Amino acid sequence: MIPKTNKSKMGRPPLPKGETKDAQIGVRFKSDEYAKLDSKASSSGFTAPQLIREAAIQELIRPPIWIKSKWKWQELNEQSIQFELGTPTGKLTGLGRLMARPDNYDRITVDIFCVGPTHANSAPMIRIWLSEDAVNKIESHSDPKLATFSLVG
Hints:
alpha+beta, six-stranded mixed sheet, elongated, 153 residues, 26% strand
């Protein structure tokens, strides 16, 4: 008769209840898209799946503002903009880049991305979500060498 031995299980111990991630989604990319994603993930210290998960969670936490607009998203996307926006604490001014994209309901979302004030050798990226009113105030800039568009609101 062979004596029984108590072997411990191999692998990672189970996570506590409520910490497991049990829903899985498959996502497909073109080769060039995946190369960009993988490069971005590596430079950020993430794996590609971690970066995708983080982006999806951020979309839930800070959802886009979907609007109807006179602009088509292709006209605004990746264009430079000079802006002066009123805030509860004063004015926010600067130069930035527009990011626009469509949804499946003929709406668009438009954000301004710009580099914020520099503190301790780091310049944080700032995202400004634009309302429908703000997007519809976007105009061609009077000095296209400075920026493609301007927004005063």
